[in-house]
Amino acid sequence: MKTCHRFDLLKAHGERDIRMHKAHAAKHAGEPSAKQSATMAALARQGMGRALSRHYANCPECA
Questions:
Q1: Would you say which domain of life the source belongs to (predicted)?
Q2: Per-residue three-class SS string for 17-48
Q3: What distance in Å separates the CA atoms of residue 21 and residue 42, rounded to the nearest whole number?
Q4: What is the rounded CA–CA span in Å between residue 33 and residue 13?
Q5: Quick check: 63 pLDDT over 90?
């Protein structure tokens, strides 16, 4: 699958956010903020999937 530069940027930023939330959850295990951060990581993953899917469907370079 050949993708454009914008797709790669969206993916990189989404993956960075997910890593950040997971790292915070691991560092603060057992605290309420860790549970919230784990939830945010899952939501970020879903949001990234939606954003990439929407971009791929509408981008003339990616299609």
A1: Bacteria
A2: HHHHHHHHHHHCCCCHHHHHHHHHHHHHHHHH
A3: 9
A4: 22
A5: no
